[in-house]
Amino acid sequence: MVYPIPPEIERVLVTQEQIEQRVAELAQQINQDYASVERLYIIGILKGAFIFLADLTRHLTIPHAVDFMALSSYGKTTVSGAVRIIMDVREPLEGQHVLIVEDIVDSGHTLNYLTHLINNRKPASLRTCVLVRKQRNGIDVTIDYLGFTIPDVWVVGYGLDYADRFRTLPYVAELKREVYSAK
Ligand code: IMP
Ligand code: MG
After folding, report:
1. Fewest CB within 10 A of the end CB: N or C in the chain?
2. Which overall architecture, per CATH, does domain 15-153 show?
């Protein structure tokens, strides 16, 4: 299916083909790194990571469980706010090998908060997998598996939204500035 590019889009930054290839590569790396682990506990961060997580996990050949956490988002704006848990994982994480799957790292506050929170639950190991990271001065947070580095602009598609729109575009694209700076 060919998706028309909505008029609110400035330009495509990462194409569908580039995403498909990179997601497969990341999964291969994860398969290798966790080859001797009994079970990997994968936590997708809702809502943004749902598409990335679905594609990534279908390339995994190691035993794994999929779970989700939901955090408060920015709401309708693009200004960073406080982080809050809206929905938690189902299992205790103590002794588990945990992999956080997140859509994007912008300031790094969300991932920083999450890694501290999960580390407090004493997992056997904790790593992070992020589709895109914005090139900007943010918190120095460790990303173990990174898809792409992108410019510091608002992006949508492949799970990423603006005011809950554009999540299902098959690529990652820059939103026109007038769309998000007018509000
Ligand atoms: P951070 O805490 O500043 O790193 O922001 C992380 C969260 O902000 C992500 O999980 C997204 O929900 C949201 N976010 C930041 N930048 C973008 C963007 O360009 N498009 C869509 N969501 C974004
Ligand atoms: Mg998010």
Report:
1. N
2. 3-Layer(aba) Sandwich (3.40)
d(CA 151, CA 69) in angstroms, rounded, equals: 27
Given its phi and psi angles, is residue 164 left (phi above 0), alpha (psi -120 to 50 degrees) or beta? left
Among residues 103, 106, 140, 152, the one annotated as catalytic is 106
State pLDDT tens for residues 17-37.
Answer: 999 999 999 999 999 999 999
Sign of CA dihedral 160, 163, 165, 171: negative
Residues of the chain with pLDDT below 70 are: 1-2, 73-81, 182-183
Q: From the CA of 80, which ligand is nearest? A: 1
Query: For the chain, percent helix, then strand, then coil, each to nearest 5?
Result: 25, 30, 45
Q: Where are the domains of the chain?
A: 15-153
pTM of the model: 0.94
